[in-house]
Specification:
Layout lengths: L1 E5 L8 E5 L9 E11 L1 H8 L16 E9 L11 E5 L13 E5 L4 E2 L6 H19 L9 E4 L5 H12 L3 E6 L2 H9 L4 E4 L5 H8 L5 E6 L6 H7 E9 L21 E4 L2 H4 L3 H17 L6 E6 L3 H9 L6 E5 L1
Parallel strand pairs: 8-9, 8-11, 9-10, 11-12, 12-13, 14-15
Antiparallel strand pairs: 1-2, 3-4, 3-6, 3-15, 4-5, 5-7
Helix pairs in contact: 2-3, 2-8, 5-6
Length: 329
């Protein structure tokens, strides 16, 4: 089968197209023929050796997210059967197979059933980001009319989903973006205000937009360049959720600084919020229903063939992308 492997840690050029044998499912596993794989910034972080800590040893196949069809099952599998349409998320741990490949053997309990009206393309675009959006919108602050949420990188793949969901819940949604083009995209999907952080101080603007109160919830996947300002832009008794390092690793934080104005900083890793099959399916079903009701619209920016994984990574790294990037297998 064809796979993309990171042959060493480094720039996108370390990704190589490799031919390997089709794997067979072990007990408890299902073999999935992948139709689409999602491309996420976490793939870049793994390729560069930034995440996890310690890094995954090379060579490895990137890509925790994909969608496809079960074509074989191992001994003892009861969760799925041959022919089932599924999507999945796979941990970043060493020794696990991932989605930049034609086939993946994966623990059957991790597979999420796909309703007939959810395409493989949509599922690959919305499993990681949809499930992440669900817990961020439901597990930290009760978002409702009168609450304010600040979404950094609001025109990115995650940001556009967060903006739509927060709008649906009735919150006042402030986003940050680096260009007018990106700002218009986020505004079109429901942001109340967009701050161009290349031209103005986002802390000052958030304070002005909230009459000095600050945001009740800040969702930050950028890291180093935004997190220090988050502590000033968040409201008293407000919550900051950090889930990514697209802008670099943040500096160390003194936890006693959080005592001032009773602020809370949450570290958020998706796998801790989909720790069992029931939770995965619950969150996924909420995402599929939101898509079905059309208030959550998947934002797919570009689809590359598997062989062009380097170009897909370069696009996500240049930070001009809006929406989700996929690999078609």
């Amino acid at each position: 089968m064809k796979t993309i492997q990171a042959t060493e840690h480094g720039a996108a050029e370390v990704l190589k197209l490799i031919e390997t044998e089709i794997p067979q499912p072990k007990p408890g596993q299902a073999l999935v023929k992948i139709h689409y794989a999602g491309v996420n910034f976490i793939d870049v972080a793994m390729r560069r050796g930034w995440y996890p800590n310690p890094p995954v040893p090379t060579p490895f196949i990137p890509g925790p997210e994909g969608a496809g069809e079960v074509i074989a099952i191992g001994e003892g599998v009861t969760e799925v059967k041959v022919g089932d349409r599924v999507s999945f998320m796979q941990e970043e741990e060493a020794g696990l197979d991932r989605a930049y490949a034609e086939y993946i053997p994966i623990a059957a309990w991790k597979l999420i059933p796909l309703p007939d009206d959810i395409s493989f393309e949509t599922a690959a675009a919305m499993t990681a980001q949809g499930l992440t959006t669900h817990y961020m919108m439901n597990d930290f602050v009760r978002l409702e009319p009168g609450k304010t949420v600040l979404v950094h990188a609001a025109a990115g793949g995650m940001g556009l989903n967060l903006v739509q969901w927060a709008k649906y819940l009735g919150a006042f949604v402030i986003g940050t973006a680096s260009s007018e083009h990106k700002a218009q995209r986020a505004l079109a999907l429901g942001a109340s205000e967009i701050i161009n952080y290349t031209q103005e101080n986002f802390v000052e603007r958030v304070k002005k937009l909230t009459n000095g109160k600050g945001a009740d919830l800040i969702i930050d996947g950028v890291g180093k360049t935004t997190l220090p300002g988050d502590f000033e832009a968040v409201a008293t008794r407000g919550h900051i959720v950090t889930y990514g390092i697209a802008g670099g690793m943040p500096d160390n934080i003194n936890p006693f600084d959080l005592l001032y104005r009773s602020r809370t900083l949450h570290g958020a890793d998706l796998f801790d919020y989909i720790a069992n099959r029931e939770e995965r399916i619950m969150r996924a079903n909420a995402v599929w229903q939101a898509i079905r009701e059309e208030w959550l619209k998947p934002q797919i920016s570009q689809i590359f063939p598997l062989e062009d994984a380097i170009a897909a990574h370069q696009l996500i790294e240049d930070r001009n992308n809006m929406g989700k990037i996929l690999l078609k297998i």
